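Q: Got a minute? One more chain.
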Amino acid sequence: MPDEPFNKSDDRLFFKVVQVASALGLGAMSAFFLALKQVNPHVRFEFSLSVVLAFLGGVVFSWFFWRLAFNLDAATHSRLRIFKGLGLLLALGTALPFGLALRNVSNERISDVAVGTGLAIAVLSLVGILLWRVGRFFEDASKEAEERQRQESDPK
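A: Always. Here it is, folded:
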């Protein structure tokens, strides 16, 4: 068993898990909200080709976004600008299906929806910050392990 807790293959596996989970999550959310046609008095979904295309679009977009995100180490200014633009599109791609699903909400329920949405955004923001911190921890640990390995292998 190796002494270092993390290595490059662990990093690649972690990035792949994040990439796949995020892609499937965004695709499923897009398809779900597009298929959702009615909530009250009964939940009603309509499956169509546009639902499949929304799922595939969310998967593909998120896949390439995270692929670019994980390869930003040697980022040029233009590549960083592309990443920021894709991040904005990803945020809009997340918010748009949610907004479309709320198009039939009555005026009496708007305040309830606004409170619930605010709480959801706060919780998801907290989860995002925690994931970012965990990612930084793993990255720092991986760099420390590489440095330790380099120092041990260098004859002095």
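A: The longest helix spans residues 110-153.
Q: Perfect, thanks.
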